[in-house]
Write a structure and sequence with these properties.
By secondary structure, the protein is of the alpha/beta class.
């Protein structure tokens, strides 16, 4: 046991029903280093970090801090030891303000009252020092996921934690925010803080990490110095094979218009202005249209308007047509029946019923069909067989197969379940918002192929992605959204990440009568 390590997790074993999530894993973190933890979806990374943070108790093994054995029975013990964690699915109270979330459980009291003034000053100082701009008075439910992440990081810094765990911190961020976060992590490490960094993104590991430990199916594979390795080597350690980082696809053959959006207006929850302002576009059969843009420019509200999660603005001339049918005022179920599949941005809020089993989630939009019900009774055998087929096809891993409660699954496997369900149901239009969020390189490779196969089968695909590489690789047409409007239509073969960035920042415009019609330079 060395004084060199600030944290040592020695021979940790953690079991759940039907699965050994961590099988005799040893992980050592040096003081002041950024240590990446890499592995496929369900490899046990989040479980291991939850053990360190006191959310789970291991059956075997022990934890040492600065060479001394410590007991971490709950997150309060972890906080007392200076350990903080930003979870993959944020632990925030939606109806509380940013300030209340940051100080929750760590309030400074003066004369029997919470000293909000002192808390506000400390939060503002921290946000300026680390470039984490937030509005302390905004409610969590009204801010973007990127902003919510900043709140989680400020929660750790507010508590003066010295060991910082980031679980998939960039899964929901825009390229610009990722760049900023990488810099923040480097600054924190330079100040002597020690960082454990779970990610699937090999570029990020190569950019910021000092060392990387790889897990596979709950077992420890090895630790490498980043200076002496490559992306290809890391992906081989993780997946056990070579992974292609480029997307192979034939040129698109666009057919009939499947989705026709005219003058769509959607109100904002955050401010008095419209979040989406008179947006018109068309998506044709056999093409992938990607909406690019910096998070918070109306993409979420735009998709929610089309899918029925959000009503179109009253008194507007908004019209949404799917396969020639006006669906502007239709319910979500009616839109689904009309041929719309939707992989939502927030898989917990809109993608799954977390306390249902995996098999129940797989038929959420189809359980009323004759295949799955008779005389208003569910055919359980049919549901079970169908869900098992999807689980096998999309490699969804869980402890108890299709009987697993969705909440107990890793984020990446939850995502694979949603994607499988949406691709497999009868549809003319696939709407996918950040479909590869939280997926490992092997799963991303598979999913990209599945989306292209969907396009080649004559489906229309509307994609929203904040990953520039994904936007340029996967799309046949790129539409850039800025401040609730389409400001550019670009050909991915003719554009560069730099040019795309200028449109995303609002510095450049080129818009047509209707995106998908003839574009005219302004």
């Amino acid at each position: 046991m060395s004084e060199e390590y600030i944290i040592e997790m020695l021979n940790i074993t953690k079991r759940f029903p039907g699965i050994i999530a961590n099988d005799n894993i040893t992980l050592q973190l040096k003081k002041g280093e950024i240590h990446a933890l890499l592995g496929e979806n369900g490899a046990g990374k989040s479980t291991l970090m939850s053990v360190l943070f006191g959310l789970y108790q291991p059956e075997e093994g022990e934890i040492h801090k600065n060479g001394k054995k410590v007991e971490i029975k709950n997150p309060n013990d972890a906080t007392a030891l200076g350990i903080g964690m930003v979870h993959q699915h944020f632990k925030l109270v939606e109806v509380f303000t940013v300030l209340d979330n940051i100080i929750l459980g760590s309030e400074t009291v003066k004369h029997g009252f919470v000293d909000r003034k002192a808390a506000r000053e400390k939060i503002i100082n921290l946000s300026q020092k680390y470039g984490l701009a937030v509005d302390p008075d905004a409610k969590i439910e009204d801010i973007t996921v990127g902003m919510q992440q900043r709140v989680e990081i400020l929660k750790m810094l507010y508590r003066d934690n010295e060991i910082l765990i980031f679980d998939e911190p960039t899964a929901v961020l825009t390229p610009q925010e990722i760049k900023e976060l990488m810099q923040i992590m480097k600054n924190l490490a330079a100040e002597g803080k020690s960082i454990l960094f779970i990610t699937h993104k090999l570029n990020e590991i190569m950019e910021v990490s000092d060392r990387c430990s790889v897990l596979c199916k709950g077992r420890y594979i090895g630790t490498v110095e980043i200076a002496n390795t490559s992306k290809e080597e890391l992906s081989r350690m993780m997946v056990g094979r070579d992974v292609k980082f480029t997307v192979d696809k034939e040129p698109a053959k666009p057919g009939e218009v499947v989705l026709d959006v005219e003058n769509l207006c959607v109100e904002s929850h955050v401010h008095k202005k419209l979040a989406v302002h008179n947006v018109s576009l068309q998506v044709r059969a056999g093409e992938i249209v990607c909406i690019a843009g910096i998070d918070g420019n109306g993409q979420s509200e735009f998709i929610q308007g089309i899918t029925g999660l959000e009503r179109v603005a009253p008194h507007s001339a908004s019209k949404i047509t799917l396969c020639g049918v006006d669906i502007t005022k239709k319910s979500i179920r009616e839109r689904s029946k009309a041929g719309m599949s939707h992989v939502p941005e927030d898989r917990h809020k809109h993608g799954l019923v977390l306390d249902y089993t995996l098999e129940q989630n797989m038929v959420l939009q189809r359980y009323w069909e004759p295949q799955f019900q008779k005389n208003q009774f569910i055919k359980t055998k049919e549901v079970s067989a169908y869900s098992q087929m999807l689980i096998d096809k999309y490699d969804v891993r869980s402890g108890q197969g299709n009987k697993t409660i969705a909440r107990a699954m890793s984020g990446g496997n939850q995502q694979k379940a949603i994607v499988g369900r949406e691709l497999d149901k009868e549809h003319s239009l696939l709407i996918a918002v950040q479909p590869t969020r939280g997926l490992d390189v092997g799963a991303i490779e598979y999913l990209h192929k599945a989306i292209i196969a969907d396009r080649d089968a004559g489906k229309a695909v509307l994609l929203v992605s904040y990953e520039l590489e994904e936007v340029l690789n996967l799309s046949d047409r790129i539409l850039v959204m800025y401040e609730g409007e389409i400001v550019g239509e670009l050909d991915p073969k003719q554009t560069t990440p730099e040019e795309l960035g200028l449109y995303m920042a609002g510095a450049k415009r080129n818009v047509g009568e209707k995106a998908g019609g003839e574009a005219k330079d302004e």
